[in-house]
Amino acid sequence: MTDEGRLTATEAAVLAYEGRTWPGPGAKERAIREGLGMTPVRYYQLLNALMDDPRALAHAPGTVNRLRRIREAQRARR
Asked: InterPro entries under this entry (predicted)?
């Protein structure tokens, strides 16, 4: 994360990937490995951190708010 209040290229790419729809099982994980050069585990760790980052909310409010709603619904079910 940067000090200037802007997302890094990797952080912005993670949010962009999360905003896409994927054709089938495994396609997203393959794209994460090949396109971002990281493991799916690392991707989801970064994504979870971004969900609470105000810079991410400013960059992609629709995606971040959707992810927050999903997270809250999952927590409520537990």
From this structure: DUF3263
67-74 long-range Cβ contacts below 8 angstroms, 24+ apart: 67/18
Tokens of 12: 């912005």
HEC string for the chain: CCCCCCCCHHHHHHHHHHHCCCCCCCHHHHHHHHHHCCCHHHHHHHHHHHCCCHHHHHHCHHHHHHHHHHHHHHHHHC
Cut 0.85: pTM above it: yes
Instruction: For 22-63, write each residue's pLDDT tens digit.
Output: 998 899 999 999 999 999 999 999 999 999 999 999 999 999
